[in-house]
Amino acid sequence: MKKRLLAVLACAAVISSAGISVEAAATENRENARIGISIYDFEDDYMTLYRTELVRYLTEELGFCKEDILVEDAENDQEIQTEQIREFIDHQVDVMILNLVHSSSASQITDICSESGIPVIYINRQPYEAEMLRWEEEELQAAYVGADARQSGTYQGEEIAATETRGDINGDGTVSYVMIQGEPENMDTQYRSAYSVKALEDAGIKTKELMAENGDWNRDRGADIARKALEEFGKEIDVIFCNNDAMALGALTAVREAGRETGKDIYLTGIDALPDAVQEVEEGELTATVLNDYFSQSHTAAAAAVQYIQGGEPETVNMIDYIKVTKDNAESLLKRIS
Question: Which of 17, 207, 238, 304 could in theory staple to 314 by disulfide, Cβ–Cβ 3.0 to 4.6 A?
Fold first, then answer.
């Protein structure tokens, strides 16, 4: 990577779990350092919040020139994203921040970036553990900033276990659930699905899967799957788990259409803490969600980019904790994220 002068006078706050300074108080000279950012799909509600905060933080607080922040929509197409990465190389960016369409592509993308001498920071969608281990073994300039999806799934299960009926809202002795999932190959999908149920079983609660189907992180798909499940299984359903809030908000539409009431005859939970979802939690329409802290994650990714531009080496894996969101803390969280 072509090194450019970057003077950062003060770093004020540190995320201990990530080990990266995330607040730069002043910047004297960046000499047009360029950052290439590719987001898997601009239509994704959560990643819209994430990229907006990432660009705002880079420009307004870290002092990068807006024209030097190249942000692209991969349109949920890995071929498009790979071409964008090659264009970033042609534009001689100093570092890339990538939200992969497919986590499995990380090995190929890392090699492309490494051959070009450009560091890469993966965000939100975790590459396979063997790939991240390879970065350290081969001393590659690659890093991941995200959150442990196992924790988010565990928190979902614990939130359901903490309800008055311990999830068994129909009282038949078993928590019968529907799992509305993200894309199958995504590690978040796999971990969130498995660990939400594991948390219930670890609490001594008997479970039964009625349906598990790919909603592709999409609100309309979440609604369609929930409608189908409610029609097929009716009152047998105790819980609808959703791997993200977009699908949970879609499922909530289906729950209302079916005349069901969250907290009265069904539980419904998501992950991300989208503002709309947190509002529904506050109003009792959504049982709970889990904050996927895009503020801390985007700031940490930005700080890692700064370290690479300075010629430093950020931590290879930087994990930010999830936070449970229930009716007790929904109001205070809304003030932060709205």
Answer: 304
Q: What is the DSSP letter of 57?
A: I
What pTM was estimated for this model as a whole?
Answer: 0.87
> How far, in Å, CA of 225 to CA of 213, rounded?
7
Q: What is the enclosing helix (H) or strand (E) of 182?
A: none
The phi and psi torsions of 97 (rounded to 5 degrees) equal -120, 115
Fold match between 14-147+293-320 and 150-291?
yes
Compute the distance between CA of residue 41 and CA of residue 27 in angstroms, rounded to an integer: 31
Q: How far apart, in whole angstroms, are the C-alpha atoms of residue 334 and residue 319?
A: 23
Tokens standing for residue 160: 């359901």
Q: How far is 193 from 184, CA to CA, in rounded Å?
A: 10
Q: How far apart are CA 84 and CA 128, in angstroms?
A: 22
- Cβ of 307: how many Cβ atoms within 10 Å? 21
- Give the integer Cα–Cα distance in Å for 153 and 205: 16
> Which superfamily does CATH assign the domain made up of 150-291 to?
Response regulator (3.40.50.2300)
Contact of 255 with 226, CB cutoff 8 Å: yes
Domain 14-147+293-320, architecture per CATH: 3-Layer(aba) Sandwich (3.40)
Residue with tokens 């189908």: 228
pLDDT along the chain (338 residues), means of 10: 28 36 41 91 97 98 96 98 98 98 96 98 95 97 97 98 98 98 93 98 98 97 98 98 98 98 98 98 98 97 97 97 97 90
- Is there a contact between 118 and 88 (Cβ–Cβ < 8 Å)? yes
Cα–Cα distance for residue pair 219/199, rounded to 1 Å: 25
Q: Are 27 and 68 in contact (CB under 8 A)?
A: no
